[in-house]
Amino acid sequence: MRVRVLYFASLRDAAGRDEETLEVTVTSLAQLYDDARERYGFAFPRERLRVAIDGAFSNWDAALRDGAEIAFMPPVSGG
Q1: Which pLDDT belongs to residue 53?
Q2: 6: nearest Cα among 67, 49, 52, 41
Q3: pLDDT tens per residue, the chain (79 residues)?
Q4: How far apart are CA 29 and CA 58, in angstroms?
Q5: CATH number, domain with residue 18
Q6: Contact at 8 Å (CB) between 46 and 31?
Q7: Is 7 in contact with 15 (CB distance < 8 Å)?
Q8: Residue 73 pairs with which residues in a beta bridge?
Q9: Could you give the number of structural domains in the chain?
Q10: CA distance 23 to 30
Q11: What are the strands, taking DSSP E only, across the chain?
């Protein structure tokens, strides 16, 4: 299955990109993030992030579907 993954803030910096399209065999958002975390060395555990599918916030055990757009958003601080 193919998904588009968007990275924000420090995740974007760590990945060196703001998005990518991936062919994946994982079936959940949690697995998708765990794979990205291992690949890019993300500092945040998924419990500290927000995740969205196709523009709507979701929970980590949501199933992936072909063509989905997934966004990983770490906590941010303002000032």
Answers
A1: 96
A2: 52
A3: 999 999 999 999 999 999 999 999 999 999 999 999 999 999 999 999 999 999 999 999 898 999 999 999 998 755 4
A4: 9
A5: 3.10.20.30
A6: no
A7: yes
A8: 50
A9: 1
A10: 16
A11: 2-7, 19-23, 50-53, 56-58, 69-73
Flag whether 46 is in a domain. Answer: yes
pTM for the full predicted model: 0.92
Residue carrying structure tokens 């062919």: 23
Q: Is 79 among the domain residues?
A: no
Give dist(CA 30, CA 17) in Å, integer.
20
Farthest-apart Cα atoms in the chain, separation: 40
Q: Kindly report the CA angle at 69 between 42 and 51, in degrees rounded to 5? A: 45
What would the two tokens of residue 66 be? Answer: 């072909």
